[in-house]
Inverse folding.
């Protein structure tokens, strides 16, 4: 049977914070990659410059869905991108700056924030070894694919984002959220990929707020046991062990997903 496997990264393939990839996960990815009827991909809110934690296994993935679907890479070649309009960024930047709210901007090779404060520091602790640069005018000379906002209080973040109806928020586990255009999602990026492989069964695996649509789209959906969003997926969705149990290979084997 031909299959496409799409994995989330943070708290699915690797721990976050910490960037640890457990042995069973590495074994699973390597085993799947050896089957010529299987295609592997990963889908993440991260940008291209924040994939350093995948060095050991990145070569096994044919597809990279980045910044929540704003970028798709196939075999190291860019095949799709959706850039945020400069005028849309300026409107939010002016408003957030006035209200002392830092705004993050995700480019292809670099990320920036309008200013650094305790909320930004908290959001990035353990997330990356390379913090964003401080440059409120980053968008003028760089393509921006996604925006960030930061606060330790998720409810406060979502309230702030209600002011920006052009964008859709995806909460992080703690400290921040992604802002994308509503037509930029992991699910819609997967649509573009499966059009190339219509005879493949789709298996999707994730844990985060930005994975719900993707998991529900899969012919077989898998949500990680460490997820906070289990109530938002279909009843038939499989629940994998907590990432820190280091049992992902065993789970796939027991459920005939290999």
């Amino acid at each position: 049977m031909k299959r496409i496997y799409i994995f989330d990264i943070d708290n699915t393939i690797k721990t976050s914070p910490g960037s640890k990839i457990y042995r069973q996960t590495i074994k699973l990815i390597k085993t799947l990659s050896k089957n010529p009827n299987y295609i592997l991909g990963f889908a993440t809110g991260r940008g291209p410059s924040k994939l350093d934690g995948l060095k050991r296994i990145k070569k096994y993935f044919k597809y990279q869905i980045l910044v929540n679907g704003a970028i798709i890479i196939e075999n190291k070649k860019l095949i799709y991108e959706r850039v945020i309009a400069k005028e849309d960024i300026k409107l939010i930047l002016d408003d957030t700056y006035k209200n002392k709210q830092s705004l993050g901007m995700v480019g292809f090779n670099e990320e920036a924030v309008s200013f650094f404060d305790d909320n930004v520091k908290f959001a990035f602790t353990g997330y990356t070894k390379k913090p964003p640069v401080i440059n409120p005018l980053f968008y003028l000379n760089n393509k921006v694919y996604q925006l960030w906002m930061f606060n330790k209080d998720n409810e406060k973040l979502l309230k702030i984002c209600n002011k920006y109806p052009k964008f859709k928020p995806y909460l992080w586990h703690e400290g921040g959220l992604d802002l994308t255009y509503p037509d930029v999602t992991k699910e819609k990026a997967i649509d573009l990929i499966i059009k190339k492989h219509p005879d493949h069964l789709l298996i999707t695996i994730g844990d985060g707020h930005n994975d719900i649509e993707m998991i529900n789209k899969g012919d077989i959906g898998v949500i990680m046991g460490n997820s906070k969003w289990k109530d938002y997926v279909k009843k038939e969705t499989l629940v994998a062990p907590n990432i820190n149990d280091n049992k992902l290979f065993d789970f796939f084997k027991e459920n005939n997903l290999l």
